[in-house]
Specification:
Elements: H1 7-20, E1 42-49, H2 55-65, E2 81-84, H3 103-106, E3 112-115, E4 120-124, E5 147-151, E6 155-160, E7 173-179, E8 187-192, E9 198-203, E10 213-220, E11 227-232, E12 254-261, E13 270-275, E14 278-281, E15 290-294, E16 299-304, E17 313-314, E18 334-338, E19 343-349, E20 353-362
Parallel strand pairs: 13-16, 15-20
Antiparallel strand pairs: 1-10, 2-12, 3-6, 4-5, 6-11, 7-10, 7-12, 8-9, 8-11, 13-14, 16-18, 17-19, 19-20
The structure holds copper (II) ion (CU).
Length: 363
């Protein structure tokens, strides 16, 4: 007898066995979740040295930001960068704990607003000897003589505006010169999008002993950074605190130059209608595929215009992917994603597949 004769019987026995085995009948596991979308891509520039040796890296950073140095008080530009080196701050606002938080968008228009959880801001011409004589031996300025530090805090935020206006702006990158970073991680810059979601954190390189300068900065592919948070050392300056390199327990760090991309306006969001059975661009009416073009950092929102089960399923080639929605059925349901990296992001509906498609082009 040929072995194949037994095959139908064997299959039947297996089927009976499975159907009888109700106690351990387990549903198949759900498919794995889609991979998370790639984070915003950026390049880090960092160096450690004296005012001469760090200059080359700063030049690289400026080149990566692109364009020219836009002069103080020049109107908002399409490209280029702004710089703050503190040395032009008037004497009346130097060596006091009340440096105006909006000075670099009102008095000298460069699109930067400051805030701190401390009690003030200070531009200092004494290497902070006026605050604490013991600290002066720690600090040396990169450009000119003036240095910067919040008062009563080691943290300052910089929020961007189109230079000289109240319109929120986005920058392509931000970097800062730190003075006397002894401990890796004591000086950091965090980058946030317009929703307050953190895009990146970079740490200023550190050294042991000698008073040196550290530069760190990140440049993104496009202008997507609405705010940076600078943590400058382990603690605020006080009249009695000692740096870790001088018998203290905390790394005391101050700041010199800030360099950042020209603040640019946030691009308009895209709206897409989800219907039966179509995706349709609200902006231009394209449908299956609905095709929308947005600036990096803008958001796409899909709105269900009728009852019907649909989802937003990213079908692009990594890294041009985003997080999928679940299947939703109620009219008025919405889903949105913010996209940071230029690329072509295709999508469809997990229920209707190729019958229902769209594309987001991020520039
Ligand atoms: Cu659908």
């Amino acid at each position: 007898m040929k072995p194949t004769t037994y095959a139908p019987l064997l299959a039947l026995l297996i089927a009976i066995g499975c159907s009888d085995n109700t106690a351990t009948n387990i549903a198949p596991p759900p498919p794995p979740p889609p991979p998370p979308p790639p984070p915003a891509a950026f390049t880090v520039f960092e160096t450690l040295g004296d005012s001469v040796s760090i200059a080359a890296k700063l030049t690289e950073f400026r080149t990566a930001l692109g364009g020219v140095l836009n002069a103080p008080n020049s109107p908002p530009a399409d490209s280029g960068r702004r710089e703050i080196n503190w040395d032009g701050v008037p004497a009346a606002l130097t060596d006091v704990d009340s440096f105006p938080a909006n000075f670099f968008n009102v008095n000298s228009k460069r699109g930067a607003l400051y805030s701190t959880p401390g009690t003030g801001l200070r531009v200092d011409s004494t290497n902070f000897a006026a605050v604490n004589a013991g600290l002066a031996a720690q600090f040396t300025a990169f450009s000119g003589k003036k240095l910067f530090m919040p008062v009563g805090s080691n943290q300052v935020d910089v929020t961007f505006r189109l230079a000289g206006t109240d319109t929120p702006g986005l920058v392509k990158g931000f970097g800062a010169v730190f003075v006397d970073v002894d401990r890796l991680g004591s000086a950091t810059i965090e980058y946030f999008d317009v929703d307050g979601q953190r895009l990146a954190i970079v740490r200023a390189p550190n050294h042991a002993g000698a008073q040196l300068l550290s530069f760190t900065g990140a440049v993104f592919q496009e202008a997507i950074v609405a705010r940076v948070r600078i943590t400058s050392g382990d603690a605020a300056l006080t009249a009695t605190i000692n740096d870790i390199s001088a018998g203290g327990t905390q790394d005391i760090v101050v700041m010199d130059d800030f360099i950042f991309g020209e603040p640019r306006p946030l691009g308009p969001d895209a709206q897409v209608t989800v219907g039966n059975v179509f995706f349709r661009s609200v902006h231009n009416g394209t449908q299956n595929p609905a095709v929308d073009t947005i600036a990096a950092g803008a958001r796409v929102t899909w709105t269900w215009n009728a009852a019907g089960s649909h989802s937003i399923q990213s079908t692009g080639i990594p890294p041009a992917v985003f997080r999928n929605s679940v299947v939703m059925s109620a009219a008025g349901s919405t889903y949105s994603v913010r996209l940071f990296n230029p690329g072509t992001y295709d999508y469809d509906c997990a229920v209707h597949g190729l019958a229902m498609t769209g594309r987001i082009v991020v520039r």
